[in-house]
Design goal:
30 helices, alpha/beta, four-stranded antiparallel β-sheet
Length: about 750
């Protein structure tokens, strides 16, 4: 069988007690290294059996961690427990970039004290031992063991970690118990005893272990929420409980509590202990107390900074939320304000660095020195190989952070040209700045406000469609029509006619509109709340009118600061422009276009956009195509030569290109800067096929996906650059917009 070619997968397939299999694997590794078999795997009885004797040999101590992961319930259970094993190449590279400067600093004269507060089966500690042995060959096994420490809640993982380190050291004279004594099976985040603690729970007092702190702290802490978790308790009654979610899990809890006498009392005691633990954590890590929900990695990172010795170094793998999310702002301020962040290198999982994690997931390698250092940070993002941890660009950290004055987020910038251009644009105006009178609004929660929806059998002709994110595209409010299904299983189709009426999944009564949107008589902007920075475009916005919107379509309104003139059309043009999208993509670490992400995005000052002749008419001609907007369009008296509604696809692309150029000029860009924003969009179509891109990757956030099936000169970016040159030559925007709606091509 093919699976038997992989020793770890073959061992994981054994139909036996997982603990016994792991102990047998430890013994197999010891045998392969010529070590006494009886000195490992003592956490379980695992006699030689027919079932294990014919399996391929395990050769690397790191195989124990991989096997432990494979023996867990399933990928869904591991993900919810934050229990994915760190791959060898990632752990090895992070250990190297973290420890080598320490070893160079001491010139091999002293062994650094190293800790992994979430050591699991020992991936980082084994890598640390390898580095120490290589850098300091004169150090004996006992000396190396004395400088490594770890902790984990999982007793089997701790035992495997001890076995892995002992086998890696390969010294039969070293007592394995000396390795185990360096590890703690306990709660690494809590340092004092708590009342009502369940059997087996222990705090870990790091100050007692290393009063002066550690020279290096390494790890990949859990990425799940650090909140009361019922899985451990209820899985003791039902082994299948960890696989359940939502309503299924709630029903299972009720069933278990009813079926087992005393279970309710035990659960009550467990909840009281968990509440006491949360109180202790809030007191110890006050920076996380204000967050509604706290991720475990945030507290592990705070712990690491707390327990670092002077001039110590920390190397952690953390989710991308560390540098982008609002909830990590306090940690970012501490790290960047009080210490030197040496490198922040972001990865996405396209290269399957974590085989069991969604390929879209993003995380980062964070390496920092304790104590303030006036030095730049090495930034790199969207990397796909562990070796990329050593790559990146040195940039001024303060300049990068000033780009997000509201959220303190770190943008995904590793190109000095991007930093220079975005700094200049952000200093002029931001979407959430005082120059723009922006009003954000979320109208209907599709779950909490379901009582507003009219059942299909009771629907009336004057009921109003509820807009969802799928229905929105750039300058189009009816991009999709609902067919059937709900949630992620809902089916949508693309209308063939831009004049089509909305095809929503939900409707509300017309008399509910006043409460949902008091200003419904005036146009507003709706945009898709979810957008990827690696799609053709990230932002998709359009004009709406008499349109109640679900939570996947946040809305915006704005007015001129000077005279109160409505500015929705101008703002819609900005949001759909390539320059805005470029600036947005640099700060998109996730997929949610949250308010705190948008408010710091660079926009042109209102005075450079409001009053541009022909701009409002062009936006309305593009966006108000559906027959739904006929009453609104009839009220408009633009007198524009641009056909309204603008239905021809080729003409729409040309007008959009002209609008894009007009907005780029309002941003204050020069032709070279605009070309930098649109770099890579002129490649031949053969270079842009999925197969070609797989062979020779292009910048993940580039705009090369736009119109890639068309000849380069007919794509929207090429048309926009040509239009910009005409503006630069003195052609008025109104003349350019009118001409592009009529002509077959735009010539520079």
């Amino acid at each position: 069988m093919a699976r038997l070619l992989d020793p770890v997968r073959a061992w994981a397939a054994i139909d036996a007690c997982p603990t016994a299999v792991l102990a047998a694997a430890s013994r197999e590794l010891a045998r392969a290294r010529g070590l006494p078999v009886e000195r490992v795997g003592r956490f379980a009885s695992a006699p030689e059996t027919e079932r294990t004797s014919g399996l391929p040999p395990l050769r690397d101590p790191l195989d124990l961690g991989r096997l432990h992961e494979a023996q867990m319930v399933d990928a869904r259970g591991r993900k919810s427990a934050g229990a994915f094993y760190t791959p060898e190449d990632l752990a090895g590279e992070l250990a190297r970039v973290t420890l080598f400067p320490l070893l160079e600093r001491t010139r091999g004269e002293a062994l650094p004290r190293i800790a992994d507060p979430s050591c699991g089966a020992g991936s980082f500690l084994v890598q640390a031992v390898r580095l120490l042995r290589s850098a300091m060959p004169a150090a004996d096994a006992a000396q190396i063991v004395a400088c490594v420490h770890g902790a984990d809640l999982d007793p089997v993982a701790v035992a495997l970690c001890a076995d892995s380190v002992w086998i890696e050291l390969g010294n039969p004279d070293l007592d394995p118990d000396r390795v185990l004594a360096q590890l703690r099976c306990g709660d690494a985040l809590v340092d004092t005893a708590l009342p009502g603690a369940p059997d087996g729970w222990r705090p870990v007092d790091w100050a007692e272990i290393a009063p002066d702190g550690f020279d290096a702290i390494l790890g990949n802490p859990p990425w799940d929420r650090d909140e009361p978790d019922p899985r451990a308790f209820f899985s003791s009654f039902d082994p299948g409980y960890p696989k359940l979610v939502g309503a299924e899990a709630a029903r299972a809890r009720t069933r278990i509590l009813d079926a087992h006498p005393g279970a309710a009392a035990q659960w009550g005691e467990t909840l009281r202990f968990l509440d006491a633990r949360q109180a202790a954590l809030r007191e110890r890590f006050p920076g996380s107390a204000s967050a509604t929900k706290t991720n475990a990695y945030q507290r592990f990172l705070a712990l690491g900074l707390e327990r670092l010795a002077e001039r110590g170094r920390i190397g952690f793998l953390v989710p991308a939320g560390f540098y982008a999310d609002r909830g990590s702002a306090g940690l970012r301020d501490e790290l960047f304000g009080e210490h030197h962040v040496e490198r922040l290198v972001g990865f996405d999982n396209r290269g399957r660095l974590f085989p069991g994690v969604d390929r879209r997931f993003k995380f980062a390698a964070l390496v920092a020195d304790r104590g303030r250092r006036d030095a730049p940070t090495q930034f790199g993002f969207l990397r796909t190989r562990a070796a990329d941890m050593a790559t990146g660009t040195l940039l001024d950290t303060d300049r990068v952070r000033r780009l997000s004055p509201s959220s303190g987020a770190v943008l995904e910038i590793d190109d000095p040209r991007d930093l220079d251009l975005l700094t200049r644009l952000t200093e002029r105006a931001r979407l959430g700045g005082t120059d723009w009178a922006i009003r954000f609004r979320r109208e209907i929660d599709l779950t909490l406000d379901r009582s507003l929806f009219v059942p299909a059998e009771a629907r009336r002709a004057d009921d109003l469609p509820v807009w969802e994110g799928r229905m929105i595209d750039a300058f189009c409010a009816t991009a999709k029509r609902w067919v059937s299904g709900t949630g992620r299983r809902a089916r949508w189709t693309t209308p063939s006619d831009l004049r089509a009426m909305p095809g929503p999944q939900f409707h509300v009564r017309a008399d509910a509109l006043d409460a949902i949107d008091p200003d419904h008589a005036a146009p507003k902007i709706g945009f898709m709340a979810v957008g990827s920075a690696t799609n053709a475009r990230t932002m998709a916005a359009t004009l709406l009118w008499r349109a109640p919107c679900g939570n996947s379509v946040p809305t915006l309104r704005c007015r001129s600061k000077d005279d109160g003139t409505p500015g929705e059309s101008a703002l819609c043009a900005i949001l759909n422009s390539s320059v805005f999208d470029w600036a947005l993509r640099l700060r998109m670490a996730g997929n949610n276009l949250n308010r705190f992400v948008l408010i710091d995005v660079a926009v042109p000052p209102p005075g450079s956009v409001f009053g541009i002749e022909g701009l409002d008419a062009a936006v309305e001609a593009l966006a108000l195509t559906s027959a739904w907007f006929d009453p609104l369009r009839a009220r408009s008296a633009q007198g524009s030569p641009i056909p309204s509604p603008l239905l021809d696809g080729d003409a729409r692309r040309r007008v959009r290109a002209a609008l894009d150029a007009v907005i780029a000029q309002a941003y204050g860009l020069g032709i070279d800067e605009y070309a930098h924003v649109l770099a890579g969009t002129d490649l031949p179509s053969a270079r842009l096929t999925p197969a070609a891109v797989a062979r020779h990757p292009l910048p993940a956030k580039g705009f090369w996906r736009i119109d890639r099936e068309l000849p380069p000169t007919e794509r929207l970016p090429a048309l926009a650059l040509a239009a910009f040159r005409r503006l630069d030559a003195g052609v008025p925007p109104a003349e350019l917009l009118a001409a592009t709606s009529q002509r077959t091509t735009v010539r520079g």
